[in-house]
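Chapter summary example.
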Amino acid sequence: MTIANRATLTPLQHRCRAPEPVTVLVPARNEATRLPQLLADLRNQQDIELRVYVLDDDSTDETAAIAEQAIAGDERFVLLRCHSAPPPGWTGKAWACHQLAGHAADSILVFLDADVRLRPGALAAAATALRAERLHLLSPWPQQIAGSMSEQLVQPLLCWSWASLLPMTIANRSRRPSTAVACGQFLVFDADAYRAVGGHAAVAASATDDLDLARTLRRKGFRTAVRPAGELASCRMYRGRAELEAGYRRWLWSAYGSRAGSAAVGTAAGLIYLLPPVAAVFGRGPARRLGVAGYVAAVVGRLAARSLESPSLDWTDAASSLAHPVSVLAYARLSVTSHRDHARGALTWKGRELIGADYARACTE
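The structure predicted for these 365 residues follows.
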């Protein structure tokens, strides 16, 4: 499956000017170290007419001051400040995106996370693809940058999880919610379709608002698709083990619908990806040969999925692919701790409870 997807999914390419103006929406909570680089990338975008809104989401660091400095008087950029926790029933990110969307006037909306990095033609390529393919949501999949060993083990699993399970040329044409794929780091919407389904208000309490928005759009008859961003976009989602574990614990409890769903997926992954290397080491005769074949297939699939999102592979990609059984164990551990923390009501992100408990002050420009 991953080899077929690698052969058929083409990455975005910057070929021409964007067909219409675009509004870019950036939610930012405690992003003082990351946001300036994204804003610099946005200022350098080519062949596109942009309007950019950045929301400082009640940050406890210097996000607002640093963002204002990075904007440097560019009239295309507007800095908004929100001095409130999200209302009851909302996650922080969904509430921030909802506030941002209220300021957008153009017919193409782009939501970007602060840790995304863009090449100069990235937004023009994404907007062109959205219209050329008659989509209502395009999710360009950024290359997932992995720095530490824990990141190298876990982060490539994001792309691998769908590239190894879904025939994407079929899934991208389908309107079945179960085959939808999306990455909230970089989302490109037709504004009318986004508003028709209720925008982020439709997924206010979701820990995976990106995927649930794609599913909601499909339920209403709209078209969604995912495409590799190739060299045009990258993202280092987490930095180090502690941040990675906190990030995955925040949402893995909701990934498969229930504890039973997570247990079923974990059991299946164990049989498919852990049993073969055990058989390769400890088995004899046919069992050993089958174990070796299963392990090699897993490594090749992992490499094929990684090459789908990454313009070039290096030795760290090869090493993490060889350690794929360890990655599966690490993912299973994160899933267990996510369910545990969710049951205890202990899920937080960036110093805030996952679901807001109060709504004190209004957002002001």
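To summarize the output: The first strand starts at residue 22 and ends at 28.
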